Amino acid sequence: MRTMTLGPTHLEVPVVGIGCMRIQNLSPAEAERYIQTALELGANFFDHADIYGGGECESRFADALHMNDDVRERVLIQSKCGIRKGMYDFSKEHILEAVDGSLKRLKTDYLDVLLLHRPDALVEPEEVAEAFERLQTQGKVRYFGVSNHKPMQIELLKKYVRQPIVANQLQLSITNATMIAQGMNLNMGNEWAVDRDESILDYCRLHDITIQPWSPFLYGFFEGVFLDNPKFPELNRKLDEIAARYGVSNVTIAIAWLLRHPAKMQPIVGTMNIERLQASCKAAEIQLTREEWYEIYLAAGYMLP
Amino acid sequence: MRTMTLGPTHLEVPVVGIGCMRIQNLSPAEAERYIQTALELGANFFDHADIYGGGECESRFADALHMNDDVRERVLIQSKCGIRKGMYDFSKEHILEAVDGSLKRLKTDYLDVLLLHRPDALVEPEEVAEAFERLQTQGKVRYFGVSNHKPMQIELLKKYVRQPIVANQLQLSITNATMIAQGMNLNMGNEWAVDRDESILDYCRLHDITIQPWSPFLYGFFEGVFLDNPKFPELNRKLDEIAARYGVSNVTIAIAWLLRHPAKMQPIVGTMNIERLQASCKAAEIQLTREEWYEIYLAAGYMLP
Amino acid sequence: MRTMTLGPTHLEVPVVGIGCMRIQNLSPAEAERYIQTALELGANFFDHADIYGGGECESRFADALHMNDDVRERVLIQSKCGIRKGMYDFSKEHILEAVDGSLKRLKTDYLDVLLLHRPDALVEPEEVAEAFERLQTQGKVRYFGVSNHKPMQIELLKKYVRQPIVANQLQLSITNATMIAQGMNLNMGNEWAVDRDESILDYCRLHDITIQPWSPFLYGFFEGVFLDNPKFPELNRKLDEIAARYGVSNVTIAIAWLLRHPAKMQPIVGTMNIERLQASCKAAEIQLTREEWYEIYLAAGYMLP
């Protein structure tokens, strides 16, 4: 698969990442087949979190991969920490414990990337800095990033954190593209003009932070898939039309739409369906035109003032 | 007319600019009379865009001005590019083509100012930088700016663009002043507190970017003129009262309200009516008091917490 | 009482400040008792504004304190200026006049801290800078800050103002915590995601500006007290539960919730009730756990995505 460098690092990653949030729903045999298919497609970047499946996803993944040192070198593993029952927690103590838990479940001694999962209102950036420093020195984490963070939160972290923030995982899909729409409607009276992210997209471009869109096929907050959904007739007509033009599925076009954006995003695809996985990876071979990108945008119901 | 320097440049411009968006609605004779009146008033800064009247506005303007080298030196011409049918386009190729089109229609070999018309979601600032560099080197454009842009978008451009951003054309009038109201209602539960522009007004002041208010007499998004409009009884009462005090028309006061703001704005007046044009330029001679500015603001329905 | 340094200064201030906005409602004897109680509790930081009670609060305070040079050295006095009838005014002339008025009413020759009360749309930061410079040189004001300001407004001031901005007084309570909630809901479709303050909380942390929460017991914009209010059953149940655990009143917990935040805030308590004053100061001795802080947050109706 086509690769890119992650954020400001030299780490080569496939442009489509594999989200393992639901891998515990697969049987061991299914999980093994799923991961092998991904690897055959060149999709060797796997996204985890300590809380996915209560930790079960990381374990299931390691088992399905028959993790050992040789295998470990062939994959890139990202995990997240900071969400606990009833609260978020970016304390040094919790970050260190969470990573140790992930490493144990993943049967590895290092993560390629660690993300802070959701902004903790009580974050003390000095503690995050100490935790990151320790994890890097110990060789437990190679690169650090965030998830669902806005610019000033990242600035606050950077006041103390020495390591570059390499990624920011954000909810973004054709139908959940307010972070794109706001930029084209600013200062308008309409709903799209309402600021909800403080220009996180442009901020990430400015600072060479890779945006990892999560839920690239969903609308709302986990409400459902927009593909082939009768709630989005115009969008699906347009996606099907363009998919036919390229001889690919609408899944491919949905991912290609994200990849077409010049921010050089790395969508995280969490489907557990082999065909969708293949179709998603196929997007790396498609380069939508500017016209097609805007046609899809408009078909999703956004407008150009 | 009173002049000001545009952004951080040494370019002297009249404090009221003339918007030519509707000049193709005038007959050649009317257009000639309109432009001559503007010039007699010292209003020699003309705002265009490649898309106004499908290009016809630029042509009509050049004809009405009987453009030649001598005439060219007496006027300042600003145009815009980047809006295409069904999409925005800040690609290098399109910017260069668009400027060539404008120059041809305007019968000139340079623009004083070129603005990027509306933020292109697919902007690649490296391409914009190359286009600007080329246009400046070729002598086709003297100064560069933007329109309807927010701070982070400008920051992203500035990451690559070497030339200063001298202007940002923004919709702003007494009744469309959310960018002012937000600053006085932040952190409130009311509608004005909702952020729609990420402090673009203060950002422009901070970075010496001239704000050019567009549609200074309109409410809503091209919904209508608020002056003498029964929908705004209190505002019109106040404007008439202050207009009477200064012995001018309410048009003059509407522009004087923008000029009173310390951001040193350059309103772009797009009226094609000679009397309104004269009344608009008259605003350069009026300095509203702080009390009057706030009285008008409050009469428009805003409040002070 | 536990103390902290104010902003980036070396000034030691108690972590709970006393708001004197309603002190003119007390009789001279009550006011004297109120202030003496505060001083006995170590709460020697008093927050004023030139407009509180039309100036009467500052006078009443000075009388109740029997102000003289010895007394003056035992207290820290903060006042504000910039709000006038029907407008805000940060002109040099007005700032200087306002401070002179406050000093006269307070029977002192200096303020420890001067805040600009509410952002003036017509602010000219050069004038603010001149006023601050003059006030500092004359020894009339030791430190300068703002109130109800957002990041870009502070940046604009800092373009010219040489003195550090040491404090930003902002409306913040458990039930008015949108500036906290926005940071945990960004990029969501819900109401909390709507940006109303441009990350002022994180900005203040980033720049070592002390946030002084005002109205720490109120919901809405002066709508009422949330403590013991049947409109907030779940919140009050939680506050009572935690208060019982620590053997303190719910007032104490409401303030302790603000003090638990790592931004190192200095709540301004404006109650004129002696028991509430004591309970508020008691909060300096309580350190809520992370769990308790989040439990209170959730009980107030916010959610964690």
TrEMBL record, chains A, B, C:
List, alphabetically, the GO terms of the cellular component aspect. cytosol
InterPro entries linked: AKR, AKR_Detox_Biosynth, NAD(P)_OxRdtase_dom_sf, NADP_OxRdtase_dom
**Which GO molecular function terms does the record list?**
oxidoreductase activity
- Name it: Predicted oxidoreductase
Pfam families linked to this entry: Aldo_ket_red (PF00248)
Organism phylogeny:
Bacteria, Bacillati, Bacillota, Bacilli, Bacillales
PANTHER family xrefs? NADH-SPECIFIC METHYLGLYOXAL REDUCTASE-RELATED, OXIDOREDUCTASE YDHF
Source species, domain of life? Bacteria
Organism whose genome encodes this protein: Alicyclobacillus vulcanalis
